Amino acid sequence: MRSIWKGSLGFGLVSIPVKLYSAVQSSSLDFDMLDSRDHARIRYERVNENSHKEVPYDKIVKGYKLNDNYIIMDEQDFIDAAPEKSKVIEIESFVDIADVNPMFYETSYYTEPDTKNNKAYALLIQALKKSKKAGLARFVLRNTESLCIVYPVDNVLVVTRIRFGQEIRGRDELNIVDDVTVSKKELDVGMALINQYAEKFDVSKFKDTYSDQLLQIIKDKAKGKRATIKKLKPHPTTNSDDLYDKLMQSLNTKKGA
């Protein structure tokens, strides 16, 4: 792996030189857009919507539409707005990781100490594990300030970027009814069903089968064949409209399996 960021991880007066490595990768396949007549690649042009002529790169500017007018921005405007470039992931506080709503999570990075046998790196891992806390920090990545949490995964410190509060949309416009009555009988069966399906989280049991099957179709088509893909069978349903009946049938189905 190649590091994408180099700097230091700081908490209090302690500074740990680290490198960041991307901890995630896409499993989707990349496709090119082609002309169906000769399979030539399709290129997109930057076209002026008034003159319909292509615009050279050196004539392109960025503008923000404000009150039906575009405000043109220059490079200095973006420099002035950008946070001061920093090579420090500064932990500002420690929080319970369970308090971080999964809606805030973005992408994760592995950290690697930039010096051998870094005791401060090992200390932070052990302290976070023992306290069951995560560090809440800010750092600058690609000229953009990011909020993140720092936490241990086995013997590695992981930095996960999280969204700022203003990036989460409000729920006021959702049509959610708050006063729906659920009977104790229905709740008890619902809890029994959840407990019956409960298991330890093991993401390795789940694979991106769509991409695998799509790649198999591509390989078979290259050989002049047509792949046969086994489709998932839908779960049996009940004709009853009664929630309790559906819960009980679900419970008995799981027991039978």
CATH class value of the largest domain: Mainly Beta
Number-wise, the strands total 9
Look at the structure and give the mean pLDDT. 86
In the CATH hierarchy, what is the architecture of the largest domain at level 2? Answer: Beta Barrel
What key phrases describe this protein's structure?
9 strands; 257 residues; 2 domains; alpha+beta
What's the layout of helices and strands?
Layout: E1 5-11, E2 14-22, E3 62-66, E4 69-73, H1 75-81, E5 88-95, E6 105-113, H2 119-131, E7 134-141, E8 144-153, E9 156-162, H3 184-197, H4 209-222, H5 243-256
Parallel strand pairs: 1-5
Antiparallel strand pairs: 1-2, 2-6, 3-4, 5-7, 6-9, 7-8, 8-9
Report on this structure.
This protein has 257 residues and is α+β, with helices and mostly antiparallel strands. It has two domains: 5-27 and 82-166, Ku70, Chain: A, Domain 2 (Beta Barrel); 184-256, no CATH class. Helices cover 24% and strands 26% of the residues. The chain has five helices and nine strands. The protein has helices at residues 75-81, 119-131, 184-197, 209-222, 243-256; strands at 5-11, 14-22, 62-66, 69-73, 88-95, 105-113, 134-141, 144-153, 156-162. The protein has a seven-stranded mixed beta barrel. A hairpin with a 2-residue loop joins strand 1 and strand 2. Helix 3 (184-197) runs parallel beside helix 5. It is extended and about 70 Å long.
